[in-house]
UniProtKB/TrEMBL annotation, chain A:
Residues 23-121 form the Cytochrome oxidase subunit II transmembrane region profile domain. Signal peptide: none annotated. Its EC number is 1.10.3.-. It comes from Brevibacillus brevis. It is found in: Cell membrane. Residues 127-239 form the Cytochrome oxidase subunit II copper A binding domain. Catalyzes quinol oxidation with the concomitant reduction of oxygen to water. Subunit II transfers the electrons from a quinol to the binuclear center of the catalytic subunit I. This is Quinol oxidase subunit 2.
UniProtKB/TrEMBL annotation, chain B:
GO terms for cellular component: plasma membrane. GO terms for molecular function: cytochrome bo3 ubiquinol oxidase activity; cytochrome-c oxidase activity; heme binding; metal ion binding. This is Quinol oxidase polypeptide I. It is found in: Cell membrane. Keywords: Cell membrane, Copper, Electron transport, Heme, Hydrogen ion transport, Ion transport, Iron, Membrane, Metal-binding, Respiratory chain, Transmembrane, Transmembrane helix, Transport. The chain crosses the membrane at residues 20-41, 62-82, 102-127, 139-162, 189-215, 227-255, 317-334, 346-368, 380-404, 416-440, 452-473, 493-515, 592-610, 616-634. Residues 40-558 form the Cytochrome oxidase subunit I profile domain.
Amino acid sequence: MKTSKTVRCMSFLFMFILLFLTTGCADNYIVLDPKGPIGEQQKDLMILSTLLTLIVIVPVLILTFVIVWRYRDREGRKAKYTPNWEHSTKLEIIWWGIPIIIITLIGIVTVRYTYSLEPSKPLESEKKPITIQVTNLDWKWLFQYPEQGIATVNYVQFPEDTPVRFEVTSDAPMNSFWIPQLGGQIYAMSGMSMTLYLQADEQGEYMGSGANFTGKEFAKMFFTANATSQEDFDQWVNQVKNTSPALTLDGYKELTKQGTSDVRYFSAFPEGLYEMTVTKYAASHNHGLSTRVQPPARVKE
Amino acid sequence: MWESVKEFASEFFVTGDPLIYGADVSIVLSIIAIVSVLTYFKKWGWLWREWLTTVDHKKIGIMYILASVLMLFRGGVDALLMRAQLVMPEMQFLSGDHYNQIFTTHGVIMILFMAMPLMFGLFNVIVPLQLGARDVAFPFLNALSFWLFFSGAMLFNLSFVIGGSPDAGWLAYPPYSELAFNPGPGQDFYIWGIQISGIGSLMTGINFIVTILKVRAPGMTLMKMPMFSWSVLSSCIAIVFAFPILTVTLALLFIDRYLGGHFFTLDGGGNPMMYINLIWMWGHPEVYIIVLPAFGIFSEIVATFSRKKLFGYKSMVFAMIIISVLSFLVWAHHFFTMGSGADVNAFFAVTTMLIAIPTGVKVFNWLFTMFRGKITFETPMLWTVGIIPNFVIGGMTGVLLSVAPADFQYHNSYFLIAHFHQVIIAGVVFGFFAGLYYWWPKIFGFKLNERIGRWAFWLWNIGFYLCFMPQYALGLMGMTRRIYTYGWDKGWFEMNLVSTIGAVIMGAAFLVQIWDIAHSIKHMKRDTTGDPWNARTLEWSIPSPAPFYNFAVMPQVTSQDDWHERKLRIEQGLEKPAKVALEPIHMPKNSGIPIVMSMFWFFVGFGLIFDWLWMAVPGFIGVIACMVVHSFNYDTDYYVTVEEIKRTEAEAGRVIT
Ligand code: HEM
Ligand SMILES: [Cu+2]
Ligand SMILES: [Cu+2]
């Protein structure tokens, strides 16, 4: 059977477009352009697992093409035809075996990285980590700096080369806290405080977002994560301390109301606000361990 | 008085959106059109006798398929609306609320009211025929399953114009789906629409397990059973374990919302994570439930169009059973980032990857069925061959996602959207299309047009790659799912544009397919052979379309691919068409109870959604009354006479002596 001309033209067009797609501009792929140790390792892992799977996938794709081409029914073909050949132990062992080997490899790598990249595990560094407490609100992010005593909305700044210990909770439906260039996300859930260590090795403004749907204006929950030098950071903290209003309890209540928000700075926040937000729900929400009293922060130090 | 009516109407009906007014008008117009056509041609009685009350598995199957094509249209329009909104940054086409409702209805409709019924449609038309049976094990229950699915689907669709659609995503995670954040009736439409149809699905699962285990033709041992039937069996086993979880989960959510329970709320001792665990204990097996039958379909088609025996039958069966068991052990891969700790994540990452092994084996077996075969590319085979690269790539990205620490970066991004559409569209929907093209002559008695079918195939595939390949890229660019708008600064414009173009091409492909059907109905050439593809299994041994009693004489099975072997023996003169003595055939009678009972279920659901007990309670009494009436009905069967069998077979071009 002869494929019609239209079909051929279309498949050509199709391959052309694919080619065009795969050569797109590369600097946009922020996940593949990490700026910190966690993102870095995750990228390595992504590439490694891709290569391992390609060991199976590419031969299969080629094999598919070759078989379909060679054994198509046409006049005077020379390829063999064995209508009743339906079993071969040798072949079966090969293709149970290959996937088993590849999956074992990927599995081992995965398990090792799962332990080493556990998000609540502190990063190795000479510098003392800085703690930033993140609260997911409807539809904005509140950042509190317990050591510096300041707070911000939809903007977070921290020094480069310093581990940042994000403590993440929610005073709204469950969201997910994600700064792709620094590393993977963690869910923000009411009643618990999740810990996520990230670090920026380079100064720069990185995109951050809410990754788990929380309603109407969820799409507006982007924020900027700005990694600067230690001096710039200290200066910024001082500036916020000196020029911005304080966040009061009433002000916080106002923030929890549904609505989007611009970037905002606060020179102070109510003592223990983050812990209060967590414990407000904590009694009810502790991964089913309801008989045990759950400490606000899940992580053993 | 008038004022209060107006006030009620403005709350009850969804108002204020031109799209929805348009839908209102078209719904009313099409109802008027349908009613007047039926009345004009005096077809009400025919419709009732021949279709609405039927217990014939083939007709029920056709109704499933019809409903699912309608739902594909609805879900497809939703998809196009979303892609239109995302085509470029800062689009002002849909508001956030509206977008959320659309992706929620799109997801629910595509999975539960499109893929599931399309699958049940194929189960119904084909399985009994493949098994050499006269019907499913419980024909009445089968009709009831269909009508429950149908009233659930209608209930869900109504939310679009009445009360407002759900907007919490297709799995409705609390606390967002709880009363505190979601006070309108939309979420209750979700609960009851799915609940009612879900009960239907569970019953179908039971029905087909019993059918496959109990009513096979004499001689057909399990290891001689066609692969599609095997895939249906493994899928149904998963249904029977998964759907009760769904029923309970939705019931608990409803108790939370309606009776002030605290199962999943944040106060009063509730735990939203419990819901997320439960819903995925159903949700993950659910995706295997719909993909396993597609595996069966590929196996049948590959063997038929390679003119070769299926390679590695035993391994295929074994692989399918492993898949259906493993699918219950992987659910937590949907929330690696919830902080369950490294032990839990490592366990679920590994169980997830393990599924890739049996799946990979199946692909090899299909390839080696083609190896040393004589492959022809009629539309069903074209689809099957086209699916293989798609499915292989989708499977590969699945393995990538299962690498837990890497999933911290893929999760909730467009990479995930691209992955699951690739397996669900290219694996499941295209698989069912292949099955539909393959069995179409058996169902309707004529083939679909090959040339238009080819157009549809290419448009679907090109559209697919254009739409979803860029989404893998978007995921790596950090674009999160379920956002209705984004800024120019993100650099996501080009890929989104290409993606939307792809979606439009798929929309065109759907229209071409509808045209294919219309064209083929008009210019059809009847299939007089009953076996237009020169196929291998029993369903092809009877006339097309199958007579209502299926087999005039019960087949006696001696081997795998029995029909193929029988054809060979007749060709070589080893077997002559035997003289047979026809006997009267025992058949179930039609019944109006399934449709009436499902209507009552509809009232129960609708009443509970709006808290109208005056509607829900009588509705429930109606349901019970239907059960009582049915259990006292002893007049449920009849016999087809030998004369009628002879006449029917002669009309189909077969003379039985
Ligand atoms: C035919 C072309 C299709 C297109 C263009 C399309 C497009 C989309 C888009 C744009 C979204 C929303 C992504 C987001 O904002 O998060 C989506 C979500 C989804 N789609 Fe499709 N889709 C198609 C077919 C299907 C099919 C066939 C199925 C299943 C059988 C399906 C199942 C889903 C599900 C489950 C979701 C998730 C909904 C949610 O987030 O709650 N789609 N699709
Ligand atoms: Cu939690
Ligand atoms: Cu899953």
